[in-house]
Write a structure and sequence with these properties.
Layout: H1 5-37, H2 40-49, H3 51-60, E1 63-64, H4 66-69, E2 71-78, H5 80-87, H6 93-108, H7 113-124, H8 139-167, E3 174-178, E4 182-188, H9 193-201, E5 206-210, H10 214-228, H11 249-265, H12 277-284, E6 292-294, E7 299-303, H13 307-314, H14 317-320, E8 328-332, E9 336-337, E10 343-350, E11 356-357, E12 361-368, E13 375-381, H15 383-395, E14 401-405, E15 408-411, E16 423-426, H16 432-444, E17 451-459, H17 461-490, H18 492-514, E18 518-519, H19 521-550, H20 555-587, H21 590-623
């Protein structure tokens, strides 16, 4: 027994580690099974009592891929054309025409943007140094530089998307580039479609924008309201008492409210057909009827159902002309709930020019204020951002600064004092989830080019359940057939090989759980293939032992000699397969990687079980006087 102590300890250690790594998966399954049997208050009470244990098990369990547990598949497209537009200088009509043509072509085909862009300039006889680089640069050098910039933009977009998804704590997401400007994102287990869209769409511009003074904000809203009511002209000047060539001021004043009502109500309501108090207020205050201003802050409130109407209204050129030069409206990224349950969006009055962009942020972390127990976000900036942030906060104490991503405001904290050193604390979040989302937004920074969602698919959990059921059935059939063949053909030695095969499967699952690898449907196929390959080594060993026994050697000598002589062939065949799996994993896509991963783990596990476990069993049997039959 002492001679076998090292191998016994090695096997026991491998089994123990596999069981430890698989225990969170069992715990998570037990919790979910218990929850499915509970309902109502009992379910909530169970979650509250076991919340920490459930979260820990969920994070450490074996991960399932998109094809097994459902989730979302999103295709993003990096707007390289917009990047080229942003990098250009001295843009003229020719440049804008080329950009418009390129955008039209890119909308209908997956063209290589940069070569097509350069060719259009060459066809018109226009040199690129007119818009890029210096006057001494030739077109080839500029194209090379633009290729570098667009390549960096796509690479950075992939990294930022990966960073956000990782912080969203999705189990083993798959993020990869497709073609010249598209990114595939697969998010297993994700069910909140709107939140994911918000998370992935928010990858363009992160800005810190100062809110306008509440008095100025209210006056601008009042100006819009009076203009729509017919009390002001397009320059914001009162038209009361004035006449024009078309008639009296009264007739002109009566025209504007009708236009506003048509815009806001979608033409479904007339300003003159309803005599109720509400209709009268809408007639006299066509803007304030839909935007409820808060005169203490630079914001208004718009019902969720009215958001699109107000958005169209504010986009009208005549309304835009009423806004001051450095004034803009920005919507909140999420709705707020009123006491009566109504959902409102906040409409912020902000400066058009941002004070700072997100590129200066180096870290952000959601936390809880120990004094108030409210969620907060701690933010840290680089040296350049720290200097600017100190200047901005020092000059705007008591004012609000909006944190806007793609012009959607996630938070608008009040500056309480001058912030030096680049470390800031953002308060005002309603929930830890909101703080977590803001942390992700801040840590991601700003992308050099806009990213749009062009395709989105949701895979239901029922499809994953069918895949798991089919995969388990295939695995069981493969296991049963392999076991039967080995027992029938090799008798006792076949039974020993089957015994080692169970350890092989345990080791595969344990290693995957320990390294938090993701099990996919192709991964199950890899396990099925491994089951067949696992006994391949035992076949070689058993055949060599048969040859040694036929040569007249004793059973113990034949076993030792058979393992020694078969080892080289086993090692050669498994090493080549292992290297193939490594190549597939390195250069393959998601499904191929899932197959390659289980194949790699299975090869190592099968060699261990075939060479170590079965050899130990045979030696122990011969020491006890048992005579294993090799068929």
């Amino acid at each position: 027994m002492k001679n076998y102590l090292t191998r016994i300890l090695l096997i026991v250690g491998a089994v123990a580690l596999s069981l430890v790594f698989l225990f969170p998966t069992y715990t998570d399954y037990s919790h979910r099974k218990t929850l499915s049997a509970l309902s109502g208050a009992d379910s909530l009470a169970y979650v509250e009592q076991n919340q920490d244990d459930m979260l820990s098990a969920k994070l450490k369990r074996m991960k399932l891929g998109l094809d097994l547990q459902g989730g979302m598949r999103v295709v993003l497209e990096v707007d390289v054309i917009q990047l080229l537009d942003d990098l250009a200088k001295n843009k003229d009509d020719n440049f804008r025409a080329i950009i418009a043509e390129l955008r039209a072509e890119a909308a209908v085909s997956d063209i290589s943007v940069l070569p097509a862009f350069a060719q259009k300039f060459a066809d018109r006889g226009i040199r690129l140094n007119r818009f890029y680089g210096t006057i001494r640069d030739d077109d080839a050098a500029i194209v090379t530089e633009l290729e570098s910039e667009t390549g960096k933009a796509i690479d950075r977009a992939i990294e930022i998307v990966r960073n956000r998804v990782d912080q969203y704590r999705v189990s083993e997401p798959n993020i990869q580039q497709q073609g010249s400007r598209r990114i595939i994102v697969e998010l297993p287990g994700v069910k909140d479609e709107n939140e994911v869209r918000q998370l992935l769409r928010g990858t363009a511009k992160l800005e810190f924008r100062l809110l306008r003074d509440p008095q100025i904000a209210f006056r601008v809203m009042q100006t819009i309201n009076n203009y729509l009511a017919g009390k002001l002209d397009t320059s914001g000047t009162s038209i009361a008492g004035r006449t024009d060539s078309a008639g009296t001021a009264k007739s002109k004043a009566q025209q504007k409210p009708v236009d506003a009502l048509t815009e806001l109500t979608g033409g479904t309501q007339s300003a003159t057909s309803d005599t109720t108090e509400e209709a009268q207020f809408l007639h006299e205050n066509p803007f304030f009827a839909y935007v409820r201003p808060n005169q203490q802050t630079a914001e208004g409130f718009v019902l969720d159902k009215d958001r699109d109407r107000v958005l169209r209204l504010l986009a009208r050129p005549d309304i835009q002309r009423l806004l001051p030069p450095d004034f803009d409206f920005a919507w909140s990224a999420k709705t707020v709930t009123d006491n009566d349950g109504s959902q409102y969006y906040k409409l912020y009055s902000v400066k058009r020019t941002p004070e700072l962009t997100g590129g200066v942020i180096i870290d952000a972390a959601a936390s809880v204020d120990p004094e108030t127990s409210r969620p907060i976000v701690n933010m840290e900036m680089n040296s350049e951002g720290s200097r600017e942030w100190a200047r901005i906060t020092g000059a705007n104490i008591g004012k609000q600064i909006a944190i806007a991503l793609d012009d959607a405001v996630f938070s608008a904290p009040v500056v309480e004092n001058k912030i030096t050193g680049g470390r800031s604390r953002i308060t005002g979040m309603d929930s830890p989830q909101e703080a977590r989302l803001l942390e992700i937004v801040l840590k991601a920074g700003a992308l050099p080019a806009p990213v749009a969602i062009i395709e989105q698919r949701t895979v239901g959990p029922s499809l994953g359940e069918d895949s798991i059921r089919s995969g388990l059935s295939a695995t069981m059939y493969a296991l049963i057939l392999t076991v039967l063949f080995m027992v029938i053909y090799y008798h006792t030695s076949g039974f020993v090989a089957d015994f080692a095969l169970l350890f092989n499967i345990l080791f595969i699952l344990g290693v995957m759980a320990g390294f938090q690898a993701t099990l996919t449907l192709p991964g199950i196929a890899g396990i099925v293939l491994t089951i067949g390959m696992a006994v391949d080594a035992n076949v070689l060993i058993n055949e060599r032992i048969r040859e040694e026994l036929a040569g007249g050697k004793t059973l113990r000598a034949a076993i030792d000699s058979g393992y020694a002589k078969a080892f080289t062939a086993i090692l050669d065949s498994n090493v080549t397969t292992f290297l193939t799996g490594v190549i597939l994993y390195q250069f393959g896509s998601g499904p191929v990687q899932g197959f390659a991963l289980t194949l790699i783990i299975g090869i190592v596990a099968s060699m261990f079980s075939a060479i170590i476990i079965t050899h130990l069993v045979f030696n122990m049997m011969t020491d006890k006087g048992l005579q294993p039959n090799f068929g």
